[in-house]
Write a structure and sequence with these properties.
There is one protein chain. It is globular, with a radius of gyration of 17 Å. Helix content is 49%, strand content 15%. The N and C termini lie far apart (39 Å). The longest helix is centred in the middle third of the chain and has 29 residues. It is of the alpha/beta class and 240 residues long. Bound molecules: acetoacetyl-coenzyme A. The site of acetoacetyl-coenzyme A has 19 residues, from helix 5 and helix 7.
Length: 240
């Protein structure tokens, strides 16, 4: 049995691509999902990957959910903090609820899930954590003070936890995707999206497997000197 990898939000979008990529590479993959039972059922049927439902923004639900996975499947050695949502809107129209929902789901989730696995990783002296950031956390985006803050927070979270994990064989890295063909990006108004695609030098949206390849590289057993890094994959839209 390959190392056990948990992908949050792992049944759709970038998470789905990552779950499948990890499975094809020999990992024992478990996907988490938050709400869409129908998509999760279809995903498991298609891929054979079990899907566990819990809300990553809820600290207690995460601790319970991860305990359940560890009891039923085994210790989580690879954690991909991928789950995320958008609640776009300019500041004047953004409510506290929309701000908070995105911060809790996209950023506090990284704390909640990492907290549930870190003791085991330290004890076993091995762990791989990859956090999915965003070009919009690096560059900012009109209408996304919530999302950009959460994703930018992920990049800080990654570096701080990398320092703490280094002595224990735990690497913590991030991937910062650009605009990838997912339901999330398809929800951007068509005219706005067209303008965004015009600003991508490679001339297309990304694909989930463009991101999954980087995750696979980061979690490899022999990739143990790379930690606290962010790999940007955005078709040249933003370079820094
Ligand atoms: N820069 C400057 N001005 C802008 C602008 C921009 N990027 N976008 C819009 N504006 C201006 C408009 O021109 C308009 O100006 P006027 O009032 O003078 O005409 C004003 O702002 C209001 O614009 P809208 O009518 O579009 O405002 P809205 O409230 O209806 O919608 C919005 C605002 C929700 C932010 C909408 O523009 C939008 O959805 N933008 C896309 C946001 C986006 O990229 N989200 C990414 C989602 S995918 C994702 O996040 C994944 C990932 O990691 C990459």
């Amino acid at each position: 049995m390959g190392r056990i990898a948990l992908v949050t939000g792992g049944t759709r979008g970038i998470g789905e691509g990552t779950s499948i990529g990890l499975k094809e590479a020999g990992y024992t993959v478990v996907a988490n999902y938050g709400g869409n039972d129908e998509a999760a059922r279809a995903f498991t049927e298609r891929t054979g990957i079990p899907a566990y439902k819990f809300d990553v923004s809820d600290f207690d639900a995460v601790q319970d959910g991860i305990r359940r996975i560890e009891a039923e499947i085994g210790p989580i050695e690879v954690l991909i903090n991928n789950a995320g949502i958008t609640r776009d809107g300019v500041m004047q129209k953004m409510t506290f609820e929309r701000w908070n929902e995105v911060l809790q789901t996209n950023l506090s989730s990284c704390f909640n899930c990492s907290k549930a696995v870190i003791d085991g990783m330290r004890a076993r002296k091995f762990g791989r954590i990859v956090n999915i950031g965003s070009v919009n956390g690096q560059a900012g985006q009109y209408g996304q003070v919530n999302y950009a803050s959460a994703k930018s927070g992920i990049h800080g979270f990654t570096k701080a936890l990398a320092l703490e994990g280094a002595r224990y064989g735990i690497t913590v890295n991030a991937v910062a995707p650009g605009y990838v063909e997912t339901e999330m990006v398809r929800a951007v108004p068509e005219d706005v999206l067209q303008k965004i695609v015009k600003g991508i030098p490679v001339g297309r949206l990304g694909r989930a497997d463009d991101i999954a390849r980087a995750v696979l590289f980061l979690v490899a057993d022999n990739n143990d000197f790379m930690t606290g890094s962010t790999i940007s994959i955005n078709g040249g839209q933003h370079m820094y």
